[in-house]
Design a protein that fits this description.
The longest helix is centred in the N-terminal third of the chain and has 16 residues. The model has no long low-confidence stretch (mean pLDDT 97). With 221 residues, the protein is α/β, with parallel strands linked by helices. The chain has nine helices and six strands, in the order ααβαβααββαβαβαα. The strands form two sheets. The protein has a four-stranded parallel β-sheet. This is Uracil-DNA glycosylase. Its EC number is 3.2.2.27. Belongs to the uracil-DNA glycosylase (UDG) superfamily. UNG family.
Length: 221
């Protein structure tokens, strides 16, 4: 089955694309995009992979669902297209970066600039129906993205996994912690951040510290 995904990822994931669950998922997604407004645009479904080739993956950030408002989702978790107002979780991410690594709050919420440096911005579910959060959950995407996490864990070394919130933390079970680094904290959503579970986690400076220890270039957050 031909899936339009970046070639280095295709080489590692091609077996997933042949499995019955993925073929059912493909049918479901095609039907949804035909009959409803869905996000992100079809060409952006695998954007997280297109910007971050397999061997260049240094950091993995796991989100849950794409944004479901018009023009927001661009295929990278927590990221929005240029010129789109920043959703609350992204606002809190940028605030933490400002205090942690003293970078000014950015104009654009487009995180392609991170992905291009080796940050895999992976949502567990890669598509969603407009205005219906979670509408494409439990259709097969999670099976696929769990396979992605497992493949990164098995085939690469020294990747820093940033797991924010209860949902993402459960993914630590898929990661070989003898080979990789895991940083966890509360979710950057206002609900969690306002309870003191997000701000001050210093994940951005800590990530660069770990990368430096391994002789890798840090991320320009």
């Amino acid at each position: 089955m031909d899936v339009a995904i970046e070639p280095s990822w295709k080489a590692h994931l091609h077996q997933e694309f042949e499995k019955p669950y993925f073929q059912q998922l493909t049918q479901f997604v095609k039907q949804e995009y035909q009959h409803y407004t869905c996000y992100p645009k079809g060409k952006d479904i695998f954007a997280a992979f297109d910007h971050c080739p397999f061997q260049e993956t240094k950091v993995v950030i796991i989100g849950q669902d794409p944004y479901h408002g018009p023009g927001q989702a661009n295929g990278l978790c927590f990221s929005v297209k240029d010129g789109i107002p920043h959703p609350p979780s992204l606002v809190n991410i940028f605030k933490e970066i400002k205090t942690d690594v003293e970078k000014p709050y950015p104009k654009s919420g487009n995180l392609e600039r991170w992905a291009d440096q080796g940050v895999l911005l992976l949502n567990a579910t890669l598509t969603v129906r407009a205005h219906q959060a979670g509408s494409h959950q439990n259709k097969g995407w999670e099976t696929f993205t769990d396979a992605v996490i497992r493949t990164v864990s098995e085939q690469l070394e020294g990747v820093v996994f940033l797991l924010w919130g209860g949902f993402a933390k459960k993914k630590s079970a898929l990661v070989d912690q003898r080979k990789h680094h895991i940083l966890t904290s509360g979710h950057p959503s206002p609900l969690s951040a306002n309870r003191g579970l997000w701000f001050g986690n210093q994940h951005f400076s800590k990530t660069n510290g770990l990368l430096a220890q391994m002789g890798k270039t840090g991320i320009e957050w």
